[in-house]
Amino acid sequence: MSKSLQAIRGMNDILPEQTPVWRYFEGTVSRLLDNYGYKQIRMPIVEFTELFKRSIGEVTDIVEKEMYTFEDRNGDSLTLRPEGTAACVRAVLEHGITGGGQVQKLWYIGPMFRHERPQKGRYRQFHQIGLEVFNLDGPDIDAELIIMTWRLWGELGIRDAVKLELNSLGTSESRSRYREALVEYLSAHHDKLDEDSQRRLKTNPLRVLDTKNADTQAVLVDAPKMADYLDDESRAHFEGLKARLDAVGIPYVVNPKLVRGLDYYSKTVFEWVTDKLGAQGTVCAGGRYDGLVEQMGGKPTPGVGFAMGIERLVLLLETLEQIPEEISRQVDVYLCAFGEEAELAGLALAERVRDQLPNLRLQVNAGAGSFKSQFKKADKSGALYALILGDDEMAQQVVGFKPLRGQGEQQSIAWDALAAHLATCVVQG
């Protein structure tokens, strides 16, 4: 017997009972971004491999071990995008939309791919919403990104479950000086480092700072601090960011070990973390990357952005039970019709109601069936009310209106008055 077909490990189907929460989250975010003046951009999920080697860094874990890379029929090396920033930079350069100092405030949504060990909250195909801002170099735009996320957490009801961590990585010059001091210190304690940190010491020493190994963490207690190597410009930028967050009243913690996993970051880096999801605690992260556009062949262009993981935030909403009740309900009203004449009249009546109440979720029974079977389907749909059209209702040009989720007697509503009645019972109530 042939093996049954199934999804690739770490790449999951999102089933119909799950998608309402995803749509609620995505809709909340997109409305917020519209209100702040951000415009959506859509990029391909496949890019030339060289794009990620040049942007993320060839000695990062992502490029070395996690990318899905293959050759196409032309012999070109292609990669499923592991993150969105590099693709967005490529797009704005290719189309010249940041030339001449044009400010661009962009956002995107879609799947990303990394070959990691799947676990709860970490998958090989995962979904992100990302923001990228170009040609603004002050701490005010860094603050705006964080303020937007703070407002989003409030709208979703999860503010008490997340914490903001900040750091500054300085300019490439100050970071280079710090890297030298860090390597010198860690090399003197080489035997006390875990194997992964020993490898990173040779390739990407700043990543040693975010190790989870307890012995290496003990070594890092007395390690040089990035803050002591910041240049005056970076220090002033970081103080400006903190002052703006203080002015708005957003709490934060300065975490000197926060470095992020990508080579292109400079100055501001931040993460929103939670302790409600076990090991996968980061739900949103980003920072400034002022040198990336130039590194990818463009003119010097300031940039800053972030990405949030949809799977983790949906999981957090579910864990905290912060999903509005109406989100789970996909049908407001279910129309049951008995007999061909009633079915025809029901179709016409349903379309008139939809014209008047475009936001009403009205489902018309399909497949005929007895009174009992149609009511069973109405109840299973989760609808608040059932509409009934039979011989008696047809004769009087009324529709039976029956509550399915609480108190109330069945009543008869004239066809012409149905939309107004539903507006009171469903749309407003």
Class by alpha and beta content = alpha+beta
Radius of gyration: 27 Å
What is the strand arrangement across the widest sheet?
A: 1-5-6-11-10-9-7-8
Q: Sheet with the most strands?
A: 8 strands, mixed
In total, the number of strands is 16
**Shape summary:** elongated
> What oligomeric assembly is this protein in?
single chain
Q: Into which percentage range does the β-strand content fall?
A: 15-25%
Q: How many separate helices?
A: 16
Helical fraction: 25-40%
Structure keywords:
five-stranded mixed β-sheet, about 20% strand, 16 helices, about 425 residues, alpha+beta
Q: Could you explain the architecture of this structure?
A:
By secondary structure, this protein is an alpha+beta fold. Helix 1 packs antiparallel against helix 5 and helix 5 runs parallel beside helix 9. The mean pLDDT is 91.
Quick structural overview:
With 429 residues, the protein is α+β, with helices and mostly antiparallel strands. Helix content is 39%, strand content 20%. Strand 3 and strand 4 form a beta hairpin.
